[in-house]
Specification:
Structural class of chain A: alpha/beta
Strand content of chain A: 15-25%
CATH superfamily of chain B: ABC transporter involved in vitamin B12 uptake, BtuC
CATH topology of the largest domain in chain A: Rossmann fold
Helix content of chain B: over 70%
Shape of chain A: elongated
Largest sheet of chain B: none
Number of helices of chain B: 15
Strand order of the largest sheet of chain A: 7-8-9-4-10-11
Oligomer: heterodimer
Radius of gyration of chain B: 22 Å
Number of strands of chain B: 0
Distance between the termini of chain B: 46 Å
Number of domains of chain A: 2
Order of helices and strands of chain B: HHHHHHHHHHHHHHH
CATH class of the largest domain in chain A: Alpha Beta
CATH superfamily of the largest domain in chain A: P-loop containing nucleotide triphosphate hydrolases
Shape of chain B: globular
Radius of gyration of chain A: 25 Å
Largest sheet of chain A: 6 strands, mixed
Number of domains of chain B: 1
Chain lengths: 385, 368
């Protein structure tokens, strides 16, 4: 208990009993801990979001990677990400972004203690995870992994109840408090109605919600999720991501999610850890990273360009011609998109595309005038020009 | 500090024991199994080359002398040890199968399919060659220490194979591939046994072959005095690891993040499984398929993979099926006794095939 007392207010309530974690609240940081975070970006003036207390997850000089044993018997270390000083605050959704192979899973597995760091430390609520027993750590940190789980014949409720493992006694019998926590977790992910369904028969989206509920049933201070939206359709992705942010806010949880869903993440995340191609990690609010050009630097490719103004990606192709455009403001973005797909830039040009108020789209140029009634007809028409 | 009271666990009404339906189904299934096991137990004692009326069996079991003094002798000296052996070995193999299926995350794992029984045979063969006796079939030759020696050797042989397969399973993700590896290891162990038997006396080798066909009939009270405590210890170990095995249902990584000491759990399950498979094999030979089929049938009957229900119910179901096999091995109107493995294979092999055909996941090797 004494070690708990040294931590932030959030964790003091966790020490009051098994349901204490659920009473965790958002508090403003009063501990006044120094800003430990050095980001690896040079524009340090942008780092206002990284000032945190001891709540949440923080890393100090963390190097993650693999230890390999060579045939010669000598150990060799292969570091993937080096010298990370990152912080994920309680009450915030932190999203980990980066191209494939950038070490996102390695970082997450190290944060949750599944593999040891090559150097440095990970702290959760101010305590180094290396010094904690697996059971103690399990009461502070829960995960949703990429492993496809197949729990055999378990109902969704039984699967969620597995999360009570670090709280139950020797026999694993669930007390009333355990049952309450399980129902709460199911409700928290809006899966209360799924409780009696066999876990094996859930859809991908339902299963991810139930697995998230299992993590919540552990009543942790922090939840790490490795690509939870990977197999989901777009509505389920949005629903789960928004759900995670709401849980972070309302429960004071520290939530760290890795994802490939860039545009959604940049819209919803409170903070972003962005791994770029040179395996440096940038931290900050999405807008900070966009403003610094870090997002474009990490993801721009031959045919892909990040547009800072819209926060979305567009096609980047050399324009084969420039056309003039005359359209009401509401139709302009759509018209630009349609023309861009045909490798046409908008601006001054001999050809003029006009969008009429009657819904017609007219192309004039080269002594011809063609009226079309849809974008489909328009794009097929200009393709031949 | 302002608690978010509306959704917090403490603020909600304690939920009454959820899932009444499933709970009743489990109770019904366990009750039916218990009643069936008791009935078959009595029936197994009654049936044989010399028929004892069922009513007399019950009287004798409850300490009465019975109408005919010969019946009491038959029941006490022959039939009761056989029935008790079937119950103990059935429960042992079933629970060993449950533990292995969860440990390997492989629906087709059991002591027989992964070569653990062959490993136990190897241990038994080593004892046969060096001292010249097999428990059960050769009790006349074996003093108490010899019996313990056979069990220890069988359990060690089982543990060796189990540890080997467990190590290999770290690299082999496919359930079917692991099964093939198990069969290969089993073949290798059987080959070693054949080589060893060359050095045994011919009549010993022949007895060993008969022992290998499997039988519940060869055990005597002194055998039981050794076998029952060992199997009891194995079953107890399994019951005590039920919560840990549940955590393993989602895989080792999840188990670790739920605070489970995976290595210790694996060691405990390995110890328990070796004791169970070793003791069962030492006295009854390598019995096929019981350990594989019973856990699946029990899961379906209970409607859950929760080990806290699955392990006790598997004990009952294992005892039930073993008794049924013991009965079937003595077809009515025939004096001959069919080899136990013929019976278990005849109903076990279709279970495996049905499972493989029905489960696409089984074919792709995704578990369990």
């Amino acid at each position: 208990m004494t070690e708990l007392m040294e931590t932030a207010t959030e964790d003091a309530s966790a020490a009051t009993g098994t349901t204490g974690a659920a009473n965790r609240t958002r508090t403003t940081d009063t501990t006044g801990a120094a800003n430990r975070t050095r980001t690896m970006d040079t524009t340090r003036t942008m780092d206002t979001t990284d000032t945190t207390g001891t709540a949440g997850i923080s890393t100090r000089g963390l190097t993650v990677g693999y230890r390999m044993r060579r045939a010669s018997g000598r150990r060799r270390e292969r570091a993937v990400l080096r010298e990370l000083d990152l912080t994920a605050r309680a009450g915030e959704l932190t999203v980990l972004l980066g191209p494939n192979g950038a070490g996102k899973s390695t970082l997450l597995r190290t944060l949750c203690g599944l593999q040891p760091p090559l150097a440095g430390s990970v702290r959760i609520g101010g305590l180094d995870i290396a010094g904690q027993s697996p059971a103690a750590l399990a009461r502070r940190l829960a995960v949703v992994l990429t492993d496809r789980v197949d729990a055999g014949l378990l109902s969704a409720r039984e699967l969620v109840a597995l999360g009570r493992h670090p709280h139950t006694g020797f026999t694993g019998r669930l007390s009333d408090a355990d049952h309450t926590a399980v129902e709460w977790a199911l409700d928290a992910v809006a899966a209360g109605h799924l409780g009696d369904r066999p876990a094996a028969e859930l859809s991908d989206g339902e299963r991810q919600r139930v697995l998230t509920a299992r993590a919540l049933a552990q009543e942790p201070a922090a939840v790490l999720l490795d690509e939870p939206t990977a197999f989901l359709d777009v509505p389920s992705r949005v629903a789960l991501t928004v759900l995670l942010r709401d849980l972070a806010r309302s429960r004071g949880l520290t939530v760290v999610v890795s994802t490939h869903d860039l545009e959604l993440a940049l819209r919803v995340a409170d903070a972003v850890w962005l791994v770029d191609r040179s395996l440096r990690v940038h931290a900050g609010a999405p807008e900070d990273l966009i403003a610094r050009g870090a997002v474009a630097a990490a993801f721009d490719a031959e045919h892909l360009a990040f547009d800072a103004a819209s926060g979305s990606f567009g096609l980047r192709r050399p324009a084969r011609a420039t056309v003039a455009m005359d359209a009401p403001p509401a139709l302009r973005p759509l018209l630009e998109r349609a023309l861009a797909r045909e490798d046409l830039a908008t601006g001054d040009g001999d050809t003029l595309v006009t969008a009429g108020s009657d819904g017609t789209l007219t192309v004039r140029g080269r002594g011809r005038t063609v009226r079309t009634r849809s974008f489909q007809e328009l794009t097929r028409e200009v393709r031949t020009w | 500090m302002t608690a978010v009271t509306d959704t917090s666990p403490t603020a909600r009404e304690p939920v009454p024991e959820p899932a009444r339906g499933p709970a009743r189904r489990r109770l019904l299934a366990v009750g039916a199994l218990a009643a069936g096991t008791a009935a078959l137990f009595v029936l197994t004692i009654a049936v044989g080359s010399y028929h004892v009326p069922v009513g007399e069996v019950v009287r004798v079991l409850f300490g009465d002398d019975g109408a005919d003094p010969r019946w009491a002798v038959i029941v006490h000296e022959v039939r009761l040890p056989r029935a008790l052996t079937a119950v103990a070995v059935g429960a042992a193999l079933a629970v060993a199968g449950v533990q292995m299926q969860t440990l390997f995350r492989n629906a087709l794992a059991d002591p027989f399919s992964l070569g653990v029984s062959s490993g136990a045979s190897m241990g038994v063969a080593a004892v046969v060659v060096t001292t010249g006796g097999v428990a059960g079939s050769f009790t006349g030759d074996l003093a108490g220490l010899g019996r313990i020696g056979v069990i220890v050797a069988a359990a060690l042989g089982a543990a060796c194979v189990l540890a080997l397969v467990l190590t290999l399973s770290r690299w082999v993700r496919s359930a079917v591939t692991l099964l093939v590896i198990g069969v290969m290891i089993g073949s290798a162990a059987t080959a070693l046994v054949s080589v060893a038997l060359v050095y045994a006396r011919p009549e010993r080798a022949q007895q060993f072959v008969i022992w290998g066909l499997g039988s519940f009939s060869a055990t005597t009270w002194p055998d039981l005095a050794v076998m029952l405590p060992v199997i009891g210890a194995g079953l107890l170990t399994a019951l005590l690891t039920a919560k840990r095995l549940n955590a393993l249902l989602l895989g080792e990584d999840y188990a670790r993040t739920m605070g489970l000491n995976v290595r210790r759990t694996r060691d405990l399950a390995l110890l328990g499984t070796s004791l169970l498979a070793g003791a069962a094999t030492a006295f009854c030979g390598p019995v096929a398929f019981l350990g594989l089929a019973v856990p699946h049938l029990t899961r379906v009957a209970l409607g859950t993979s929760d080990h806290r229900a699955l392990i006790p119910a598997s004990m009952l179901a294992g005892a039930f099926l073993a008794l049924a096999c013991a009965l079937l091995s003595r077809p009515p109107g025939l004096d001959a006794v069919l080899p136990l493995n013929a019976i278990t294979s005849l109903f076990g092999a279709p279970v495996v095939i049905a499972f493989l055909v029905r489960s696409r996941r089984g074919l792709q090797g995704v578990t369990p």
